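Reopening this one. Same input as before:
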Amino acid sequence: MNLSMEIPNKSLFVEGAKAFGIDLDKKRIEAFDLYLKELLKWNRKINLTAIRSEKGILLKHFLDSFSAYPYLPEGSFILDIGSGAGFPGIPLKIAQPTIELTLIDSVRKKVDFQRHVIRVLGLRGAEAIHGRVQDRGILQDLGGRFDIVLSRAFSDLQTLLALSLPFLKPHGTVIAMKGEVEDEEMRILTGTGGIPYRLQRIIPLILPFSSFRRTILLFEKI
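Same output, byte for byte:
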């Protein structure tokens, strides 16, 4: 397989993906290789991520994005809020092509990069929108459309839940991808501050081949 990823890093990535139930075939590995190369190239000109090493991107961005994969039913309509350089939405779309993905970010250059990646990878059923979820036009266009709203390290839990609410279908799910949850944020887990959600699951995990601790929080709109 003639890929530019160094073999040790590629092996870590492929084996790490299996920890989340993802078996990467040649086509998907090639897509991630291209995504990685484009991210490294663009990142030299604009600040897309503070992580600049190949291995760091594979572990801390690509594999971290995969941690939400087990909770995405096939064919789901998914909104990724504050998607930055496309995480976690684009890696999840590559791994699970049946999802319909919408990415939103307030930084124009990051959205330009997302659109570039979507185009060069030929990702059908994916779009990137420049704006804020609070914008009236975005609320009107996208309200009530999604099975899942997900976000990685975006704001605090209560703000994420409040902003996600109008975009979800009835009984839709918010997937909050966090680091180790702070004691202050844990208080929301015994209630949702009057926002109509039910906490479904708390999943602590350690990313494969690292010591990075993460927490996945699943909330159902009620």
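So the earlier flakiness isn't reproducible anymore. For the record, The longest helix spans residues 26-43.
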